[in-house]
User: Fold these one by one.
Assistant:
Number 1:
Amino acid sequence: MVDLAPELSEASRLRSTDGTGAKGLLRLATAGSVDDGKSTLVGRLLHDTKNVLADQWAAVERVSRDRGFTGTDLALLTDGLRAEREQGITIDVAYRYFSTGTRNFILADCPGHVQYTRNTVTGASTADVLIVLVDVRTGVVDQTRRHLAVAALLRVPHVLVVVNKIDLVDHDEQRFSQVTEQVRSFTAGLGLADVRTIPVSALNGDNVVEASANTPWYTGPSLLELLGTIDPVRADKDERLRFPVQYVLRPQSAAVDPAHVEYRGFAGRIAAGTVRVGDEVVVLPSGKRTTITGIDTADGELEQAGSGQSVSLRLAHDIDIARGDTIVAAEGAPGVVREADAMICWLAEVPLRARQRVLVKHGSRTVPAIVAELHGRLDLGSLEAEAVDAFDLNDIGRVSLRLAQPLPLEDYGRSRAGGAFVLVDPQSGGTLAAGMVRFNGNGSGPGVPKLAIEWEI
Amino acid sequence: MSSVELGGPPRTPDTNAHPVELGGRPPRTPDTNAHPAQDQLDLLESEAIHIIREMVGELDRPVALFSGGKDSVVLLHLASKAFWPARVPFPVLHVDTGHNFPEVLEFRDRTVERLGIRLVVASVQDYLDDGRLSERADGTRNPLQTMPLLDAIADGKFDAVFGGARRDEEKARAKERIVSLRDEFGAWDPRNQRPELWNLYNPRHRPGEHVRVFPLSNWTELDIWRYIERENIELPSLYYAHTREVFHRDGMWLSVGPYSQPRDSDVVEQRLVRYRTVGDMSCTGAVESDAADVAAVIAEVAATTSTERGATRADDRISEAAMEDRKKEGYF
């Protein structure tokens, strides 16, 4: 469902409950092209929410003065590297932390020009909200399409398109509507769950923290109001237990207490679902079945634990389990596969060709693999696949993988935890690609390769 | 490199100190709530434990930087929770500038003994004594830590070096990955960092390279203090308000001691102060404060108008890029 209407009944409803207490941590990522004013927007957000401390502000004022700027350059607040300040550009993802009293935010500020997809993919992979900047004068450009495609591919739950520099077109409603229409027509086929546009002047602060009198025709919430109403998505509620084993805890003589010399537990962080004492589980890839007898933390035993919690699980049977195995709910357990079809974002300087040998890291397991086939690269203009011999840096496309050992892969559209993986260079150890498993069916096996990009996300 | 199938029995700890309890917090009562709510500290704790376990699972020789400063104390506390009921399966490394606060060194030694962890000390003084390093004109030793640190990493063949650095501390650190590659010269290349996707951390590297790992990346100074309160974590006493003989220089209160002598023009006075960061005595300033316990410190930090490094670190005031330059050379 695409909702670009400025009237936000849900947002209004949620806004009325503001101030009732902490609303949880929200993870944001920003994306924009060069000169869209992204650093200025982030600086404005930090400044207007009073998250800039006196010494940071003094440094920004000093540098602005030294450069002969007439005002204080808000972008200097976020540009952390010497080259960034000197060249007035942003080079690498920077992380900011700010708070509004009711909510804390982690913001991944992703630069637009160099290695842009790489940075956007990095920021978007953990984001609840992707903020895409568009210059109202130029409207939707190639990079905007790329950012929106990445958001759809990575299933970012909320996308806010900030139509910036509205002051430079005399706060003209017509121009804003045109850009909104461009966004609407491009995202119609993407399957994004929630896309909204907001008219903003980051430079002057219009609609950033407070609704602006300069845009009386816009009756929706400001950017910050909107961010205050969005619920962070921690996990899909109906997901079942997925627990990649990170480490086997067998203290023996290293026990902190002699009572735990014989302890044997499986340490990890719950990637999806919940676990209760007494639950039936299956260990993958072996397929052995057992029961949860204990959920431990250093603070004591738990009766149950949920997605995101780091715990240690005890099991009824003495099964051979090692790091890299996955403990899953017996009901709806995924199959393990040696072949998979996936969308990837290629993030390396060297091109990817068919038959390349890589490592696949999924959960806590890393296995050798071969990229058997390239099924086409996504053309961002048409959103269709085009046949290519190689993927270059920042290309998005579909591949088939052959795995040396079986993995419990799931469709990324159904489970982010079960479908996300990275490709790693076996020689250098570098990260080559972000991957999202695609199964056409119900998760029982690899899908039939098709050339068209069909994202039923 | 082939696929990693580590696991099995944890490493044997390096000492056989007697078993001790973690922290002072009573165990939580079992949670029978249908959907146990996780607050921000729970999330940050689980994230940090996941990162620590992941690195120990993937790599051969981890080590944690431990100075006795609040962030490294929290890091070590998280490591002990990550491997409970086993002890922390890796040693800790302290780069001793030779100008450390005595109460912090005492705290350091007591903590590693309590947890049964081996302590490796890299001494800046040794490097000064035999001429491999020379004192700087300004007398600060923080920038001198890099060479002993890199040598200790190479000597110990450490491939994962945990640090307590946080992204909210400083603008170069805001650009840092959670798992960050260092070449064989220890150098950080901020313009060519690996993408870090989902929570699939990739610590693989060539021989001679290593990774720095920052499990507290997403914590703020306030999170650290709230966690210290919640977990009842002991810190060196100088984090709390105490009366100290100090003199004012460059907008900071410097302690009168063997390594930070007032000049004739400096006025020495007794002040109620505390330290927001703990480092080399010659360049770490105190702040005026009457916050004598954790709750008072939390209130103070929540209302502060300056960053902790801006308020207390002479070495970060040298230039806009002081931290960036040190990090590129291999500093933590």
Number 2:
Amino acid sequence: MSELLELTAAEAIERIASGELSSDEYWDAYREAASGDELNAYLWHAAEESPVDEGAADRELRGAPIAVKDIFCTNGVVTTAGSRILEHNEPLYDAGAITRLREAGARILGKTNMDEFAMGSSNENSAYGDVLNPWDRSRVPGGSSGGSAAAVAGRLAPWAIGTDTGGSIRQPASLCGIVGMKPTYGAVSRYGMIAFASSLDQCGPLTRDVTDAAILLRAIEGRDHCDSTSVGIEGGVALPSREDLKGLSFGVPRELAGDAEGMESGVRANFERTLALVEELGGEVSETELPHAPHGISAYYVLAPAEASANLARYDGVRFGLRTAADDLTEMYESTRRDGFGAEVKRRIMLGTYSLASGYYDAYYGRAQRVRTKIAEDFDTAFERFDYIVTPTSPTVAFELGERTGDPLAMYMSDYCTVPMPLAGIPAISIPSGLARPDGGGPKLPVGFQIAGPAFSESGMLDVAYALERAIGFDSRPPSNGSAR
Amino acid sequence: MIDREQVLHVAKLARLRLTDEEVDRMAGELSGILEHVEHISELDLDDVEPTAHVIELENVLRPDKPRPSWPREDVLGLAPDAADGAFRVPSPQA
């Protein structure tokens, strides 16, 4: 049984297709694993009596189980977005990405825990408890797609989808030692994906290896008439096969690497070693600059909360979700939102409302939108010289539960290297590049290597990640007792 | 930078009811975050166009054909309170 859990999704699908493995046996192995979840990765998982889609095993993904972040609406299955305000919310429809997955023959294994409304970098903002990192259960899995990352790394799901607004796929993938990809804005439908910051939110895969990421992205990308910003990936997604990096150039932006504040020494050393591997594979590596990238966090923490404050206005106790009874309408709104939202969500609604208020709009929101333009221009300039930009994914390895909860700004800095890409709308992937100890000592924990490319360069980026993955040879199995040494 | 009074004003705009303790904490936390954000005021951005959206999009049009929506009773079934085929809320002027 446990051997089945070690297969990549691609390997299992191949075995099912050849008749070596039955789709139901594979499903049952994961259903059992999910029901023994000790990481609090799942908010809901399929039960034995859950209805099965009979035709799934004949389609491309052969009935393979998949975990989906609880931000995706699933028909008739509670969808909370990690929030108390949606505790009993049972959507009437499937999100666009869920429909694509079902059509491709995937079966929904479970809904994964997450930071409330995807606001967080540690999964400590969930209304339903912390998720534990399978590498060391005293540490965070990252966020906001922390449940998806922990489930995939912890062998509770073969693969998963999450959402990334400022790093919410790539950072938890990095902290849990798996692959996480944020596609180009518009590649995947946002229909039925509970909105946080609509101009930044994007759905993407969290997987054990690069091939699985390609297969999953291929299944979910595409235009959806229910999301007018979705365009799909022209030409589709090719399966990666590249074995070297000859003829490709890689820019290392000093602002997000050598000069980055708060980057741990172990992460730096691992990044340098990975760059040496890029060169060994024939890639050309040089230093470059993204002068406005250090302002990414500032711009992001104006723009994302501003959009969130508007998006979350819909939770008013009228049409769905929680209501706290009151005699007066305004009092009902205020009491419902007081009881339904957690501390971080309130903080961001306040921040967003403040920066959009008259008198502050130009100083904050208007300026942040201009910084966004400069960040996108920096990338354009860099991509004139380089095929790809590479950085560490997270400045640190997984930190301890509770370590940053008292300091919102320190938590926000977790996204330092991942925030500029969504601001520019471009795709980026994080692959595990080895292990390092945190500064100040501790167990060896996964480090992520981030590759960013121009808009819609997903196929090429996956090819690069694939070649590098083979050269790195990372063993993605966490220590069996969840206490890394 | 942000005082209690401003916090209360913004909370009112956002329809959030905060406890006294939350108001104090929020004043400190928001001030800290905005102090960091203030760094963007040092940049020269005079001739820079703002970006609201990264992908250049054209409007997508489809034929304006009626099609079935969700049944009213299913939608009302999600509501905390419904009556007479509508969402029921407390009176605005109670």
